[in-house]
């Protein structure tokens, strides 16, 4: 009986891998050098043109927003000039909030797409 148990243990020990001693086979990735095709070049050209259009649109939006920001700042100055130290108009607060929101929008647009 003891010989059977010893034989079974030896069989399991030899044929079953032990943790940490198992060999792993690593497959090296193969690089394939393929010459760029006309489709790849066309796709690259189209993506560059699209990026250029997006940047132009972003620049136009920035210009429009900064023009509006200058206009709002002028209006805010007019409201403040008309008020005195005892009166703070609700319009002044609304203008200031509008300027703040627009300024944050301009800042985000200047950062570009993330």
Would you give an account of this structure?
- The chain is mostly helical and 114 residues long.
- The chain has a domain at 44-114.
- It has helices at residues 2-15, 38-82, 90-111.
Major sheet details = none
**Order of helix and strand elements from N to C terminus:** HHH
Radius of gyration: 36 Å
Dominant shape: elongated
Percent helix, as a range, is: over 70%
Beta-strand content: under 5%
Beta strands, count: 0
Structural class, from helix and strand content?
Answer: mainly alpha
Q: Layout of SSEs?
A:
Layout: H1 2-15, H2 38-82, H3 90-111
Helix pairs in contact: 2-3
Please provide a brief summary of the model:
This protein is 71% helix and 0% strand.
């Amino acid at each position: 009986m003891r010989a059977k148990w010893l034989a079974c243990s030896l069989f399991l020990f030899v044929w079953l891998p032990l943790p940490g001693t198992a060999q792993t086979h690593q497959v090296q990735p193969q690089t394939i050098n393929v010459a760029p095709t006309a489709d790849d070049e066309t796709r690259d050209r189209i993506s560059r043109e699209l990026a250029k259009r997006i940047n132009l649109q972003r620049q136009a939006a920035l210009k429009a927003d900064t023009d509006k920001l200058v206009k709002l700042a002028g209006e805010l100055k007019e409201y403040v000039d008309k008020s005195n130290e005892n009166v703070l108009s609700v319009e002044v607060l609304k203008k200031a909030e509008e300027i703040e929101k627009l300024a944050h929008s301009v800042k985000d647009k200047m950062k570009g797409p993330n």
